[in-house]
Amino acid sequence: xxxxAPRTMPATAxxxxxxxxxxxxxxxxxxxxxxxxxxxxxxxxxxLEANVxxxxxxxxxxxxxxxxxxxxxxxxxxxxxxxxxxxxxxRVVARVKPSLYAKTGRLSLNATDLRPVGLGELLARxxxxxxxxxxxxxxxxxxxLPLPVLPRTIGLITGRDSDAEKDVVRNATLRxxxxxxxxxxxxxQGNDAVAQVRAALSELDADPxxxxxxxxxxxxxxxxxxxxxxxELIRDVFAATTPVVSAIGHEADRPILDDVADLRASTxxxxxxxxxxxxxxxxxxxxxxxxxxxRAINNLLQREAQTITALRQRPVLANPQAMIDARAExxxxxxxxxxxxxxxxxxxxxxxxGHLRAQMRALSPQQTLDRGYSVTQLADGTVVRTAEELQPxxxxxxxxxxxxxxxxxxxxxxAAPATEAL
Length: 422
Hints:
This protein is of the alpha/beta class. 42% of the residues lie in helices and 21% in strands. Helix 5 (193-205) packs parallel to helix 7.
């Protein structure tokens, strides 16, 4: 058989195949080059392991909010520069660069600086986050949901068999024995707390029977309460459609959850007092209201009775006939006055009529005839005014004061001139 041709090494991973694979060392070398070209990064976490051997530090760093961890190596040259030795449980920030140990394929982080996160730094971070969320409007009062007066079911998120759970349940039951709870126990500190509380919040918010949700935890150090200032949890509470009550720690403790919650209770006991009414107080209030209502009704009846008595004592009600008699007398006086005015007016009208009749008679033609004058007319009734209008022998009719007569013109005498008449 002819000898096989020498195999050409694939230049890239995409060119490899089952017939032409890479040796493992090639992949390891390429990964090492790629990984160690990554930039230097500052990361934050909590130390789960902290072993120092031969001056070198071998740490396990875990995310503070999620179940993610990574091995971190701190070489002795860096360890000597640290102010304190790393301890399990400490919260730190580290300046790291990824590194791949080619012999075993172990990926780790090499730390060139490691700093503990102090209380002051945590408080500063929380304050910056609080201000940023507040600027977005997550804490505005117009977004707060009102709590129901008497919730049917209360959702409670708290630690298992915790004092906070006992305080809420006991005090709420003492105030309103018929109250019902749906309790979800979660971690309330540590790396799993945020994820578990968020899941419980989502489950209770989706339950139509739950009318208010209480997130409760007892007091603790600032580091223990950090999950209740987690940004993702804060945004979940803001988006919830069910009212949320924050009851974290004591009066002095104030995680960011207190600001976004629809109601902030200073303690779990205070939360129980504010989400359900006190049965005894309600009975006392009902009794007080009944007493006030009785007094108001009695006072109203007394006032109305006094008003009726006063009305009955008025003359118009004591002797109703007196009002009728008085009005009858008034009517009689007005009738008499009206008749007198009418008679007087009729008398004056009669006098005026007599005067007018006398004036008319004085001016009438008959009055003139009665004084001896007569009216001469032609046959057609035309009144004769001058002698020149007539002809001798013409017939005339003459009207005197009493009766008429006829005549014939015998002779005409013209009227004398005006000078002669004078």
